[in-house]
Amino acid sequence: MSASADSPSQERPRSVVRSLLRLWPYVRPVRVRLFTAAFVAVIASCLSLVIPLVLKWLVDGPVAGRDPGGVWLGGALLLGLGVLEAVLFGFRRWLVARPLAGVEAAMRSAFYRRLQRLPVSFHDRWPSGQLLSRATTDLQLVRMFLAFPLTFLLVNGTTIAVGFVILLLQDWLLGLVLLAPVIPLVVLCSLFETKYSKVARTAQDQVGDLTTVVEEGVLGIRIIKGFGRNRSQARAFATLSRSLRSTELRKARLLAGLWALIMALPELAIGAALVLGTLQVADGTLSAGTLVAFLSTALALRWPVESIGFLIAMSNDSATATDRFFEVMDEPEAAQGDARASAPRTESVREDGLRFEGVEFAYPDSPADVPPVLRGVDLHIRHGETLALVGATGSGKTTLTALVPRLHETTRGRITLDGADITGLTRARLRELVAVAFEEPTLFSATAAENVLMGMEGGGPAELDRALGVAQAGFVRNLPAGAATEVGEQGLSLSGGQRQRLALARAVVGGPRFLVLDDPLSALDVHTEALVEAALREVLATTTALVVAHRPSTVLLADRVALLSGGRISAVGTHHELLHTSAEYRTLMSGSPQEGHGPSALLPADAPTVRPAHGHEGRPAR
Ligand SMILES: Nc1ncnc2c1ncn2[C@@H]1O[C@H](COP(=O)(O)OP(=O)(O)OP(=O)(O)O)[C@@H](O)[C@H]1O
């Protein structure tokens, strides 16, 4: 979802107020403090309007009557009002600071929880930078809005209204002269708001795109350096950065134009009122004190009026940030266990193994004219059996394995675990039953032990040791702090093979009933692979397992092999049966010339091979 992509909020007419009102559920818990703070700020701001009235009294009274006692009293009153105003504004800040940090934190937690619950298909569609910028910059903007523009739009609005009433009461003609710019200002503000909100949206989306590029640049630093792509990456960054800069400049130009008008029109009105007022004083129709009070009030209203421009701008930025936040919050969550009415609610206890029945799956964003990746998969992995899934690259092996832990939902057909439809199981139960390890092993910024024990709620050192043993991950003990070593962001401080072994340990630690492994040995050297294989055999003997295999050595871990072709299972049998009966299987197996595991090691001498067998003894299939 780049800046250029249409987002839901851009398609329908947008209202800043409606967008901001959606914040209410998060603001509700702190409403009392927020309203109190706004009330205190209104009082403080209106106090500044009392000062000109004291001035009027001072000029027309004690100063005109040469009464030093009165002048001192007036001075003390002005000082007292000033101090009270400052104290009240300070109190307002204290009232809002802590609760608003709480609102921001609550929104961020809700956002994070949502991200965790959203289906994998959502994460496939959304660049991580767009999500990161929503969780950081956008939520900061929202907090700033609640702390400042929200209160001051109310405070300044009230101050302006009270101020004009005071001005009109003092001299209605001069008051009307000052009020004259209001109508053009309202029209200008609404025009500005429409234009500004579009530019604000573009800028915030561009920040998201830029965050994505920075994130990819950091995570992919090895590839970028390895392929010498620093320049092209820097160019991509510079292009996005320039676009963002020009959008920010457009924002600044719009704001500057509005600000110039907001400042110039009232200044002109004050100038006109000053001329008119001076003439009235000269005529004797207006007292000098009233003119001083009038002009002081008008000057006291300058800041509330001038601030309206950037308060509107900030509110617009915040409304855009709110829209962006709710675009993610409004996304439908992944279906829960009992979401499908047709799914059986009780779990069968039969030792039926893992079954795929007429399973069809198409990625949600794939074009309508592209056939589904899986088009009716029927497969039965018997209880306690290990089945290797083999197929050409892109045939859908990873997709099929991702359906078992419900990372994606089948579009048709069903998958059962010991006879129970997986859509009828709760997520927690499904996670208990099925453990997964993917080809690309993801580790988290945590210790090696924490990464492994993520696979078993409440697991301890004994389980950890067993799992590390099974995955041949003894290297962990040689890390600087042993299993307590932080393995770094995405485990980048470890080698590919080490990461894969930790991921494998995580998959087996809980002793799952069903194990789904996506090419678990792909990054291991031949020696380690043999060790892991030996240990895996023990684990596989006690579980029902589906193992995606690219290499003959992995296939040999399995009791039977299924060939995925054309979105269906086209053949099932033992390794040797398939070598005899399926030309496609032979081609796939002979296309992996690994030292010691290639066709020479695995194809029996009488198999009709694509490449000639070399007559070595192959490892026996189980
Ligand atoms: N997130 C996705 N969105 C849309 N299409 C996808 C997505 N992931 C995979 N595909 C497509 O689905 C098809 C099957 O991909 P899959 O990764 O399951 O194949 P595979 O058999 O595991 O491949 P390999 O052996 O190379 O790992 C491919 O055509 C791929 O382009």
TrEMBL record:
The chain crosses the membrane at residues 34-59, 71-91, 144-166, 172-192, 254-279. Residues 589-622 are annotated as: Disordered. It is found in: Cell membrane. It is a multi-pass membrane protein. Keywords: ATP-binding, Membrane, Nucleotide-binding, Transmembrane, Transmembrane helix. Pfam families: ABC_membrane, ABC_tran. One of its GO terms (molecular function) is ATP binding. The keyword Aminoacyl-tRNA synthetase does not apply. This is ABC transporter ATP-binding protein/permease. The lineage of its organism: Bacteria, Bacillati, Actinomycetota, Actinomycetes, Kitasatosporales.
